Amino acid sequence: MLKRQDGVSAEFSQPLWSTMLLSSIMNLRALFVALVVVAVAWVDSHTVDSDTENWIRTLFVQPRTLKMRRELRDTPRENLQNFFQAINILKNDRSLKPNKYDALCSLHAILMDIAHHGPNFLGWHRVYLILFENALNQAVPGVYVPFWNNTLDNSMSKPSLSSLFTSDFLGNGRGLVSTGPFRHWNTPHGLLRRNIDQHGWLMDNIDEANVMSRFYLEDITYPNAMNWSNVEEMHNNVHVWVGGQMSKIESACYDPMFWMHHAYIDCIWEKFRAKQRANGIDPNLDYPLFSFGEKRHSPNAPLGFGWLLVRHAIHDYFAESFYRCAETPSCSRQRPSCGSIWLECDFQREQCVTRPVRKTIWGYGRIRGRFSKIGGRKTFNRLLKP
Ligand SMILES: [Cu+2]
Q1: Residue 215 has pLDDT above 50, yes or no
Q2: Residue 200 falls within a domain, yes or no?
């Protein structure tokens, strides 16, 4: 029986050991849980202190119940508040240096090269999100990470007026974040700030359709994907669109928007995998054997979490044992409600769109079109990697 750690919710008391033998994915499950009892093998010369390492080991558990991740605007208020509260509990928990939230977030920068610019991008962030969700559940049991489907905001005539950037959701979108659940947050990269809708761009339905039109992981990830179906590239532009800490890899997760953004990207990937299964392609085996680009993205390279390898992160174990993605609200002329006060139906396009909250005080419009997008390009990677 897995020994329960202090503060770990009852939900995590499921003895993984007993289910191991029954599982068809026994080896992977064993590898995952083995991290609880062995030293986490951090890569390169980077280390975290032993207290942090010990805590992170407690995050390698499988919840008894599956989470249902929902779109932010479709998440019941109570769940959303619990989610924000859990984040703040981690942020204020100084039993680790400098606090639990920042300690977990630091891994994103430490393992930056393993996690980005290659086919491991999706799998690595999937495992990382699971660890984060487990950390939240230690603070407030039952919490899940809602996903931010940014196409709902992109469909607005002025996405900078999205209700997401109010105290009801994530706080203001320009300058120091002084409203909402993360107001006046300090980070290792200065006070939390954003600069929405100045550079980069949000995703649209065509982006998702382009991803869905492809067949293999290498068709939607670096280094082989065409730009128009490269999901990492699409995600980079959203990071840049938010600005502030979000615009750079080493600081991105210090803005909690990071997790909701990645939860959406992850849901797109899961949809892609479902389509693969329907087409007779096994997503468990779909990792480029040779054309993976840099060595650290090779299928047998370490994932950065204990004994897990890069190829393990694409396994259905992670896709199926922890959470599901709910559908983003949709509407039609016959079914005009989007089921959320934050969304309204665009009857022409028959899709839900974020309701604007107020007139902008910045007084600029949005430049649309491919050409202007290219002109404004400042990619997430390029900001970091000379
Ligand atoms: Cu990342």
Answers
A1: yes
A2: yes
